[in-house]
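Lecture 7 notes: from sequence to structure.
We start with the chain below.
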Amino acid sequence: MGDHGASGFEILEHTADVGVRAWSATLEETFRQSTLGLLDIVGVWQPGEGMREAIAVEGRDLGALLVDWLGEVLYLQDVRDVVITEVHTARVAGGRAHGWVELAERPSTIEGTAVKAITYHQLQVEQVADRWVATVYLDI
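Predicted structure tokens for the same chain:
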């Protein structure tokens, strides 16, 4: 802590991220659950009807694929300034993930936390016993 005179400094610790852990028997549903976690944090998950928008991403491994998938969903939501009413991950295999989201006009205000980026910090996508588990951290 040191002297609190006219000059000095102090190191302040804070966390600028939040994590999502998702799981399911299939990789596709684990990606979907990760997406729902992201949308819940941002405050833009509103199940219902919307306009379908296809998503397809490629990645060198499952972790990169999940980061790119979530990044694409976040980008679409942000650029279109919408809520997301449905998420469907059709297939996750061979370094590719594809599916779709449904978008709808957002209400005047949404309650949530702005997410700046999907990070590679402590990123994991692995098979544990009979299910897939994904852990991803978001920069907020």
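Points to note: The first helix runs from residue 27 to 42. The radius of gyration is 18 Å.
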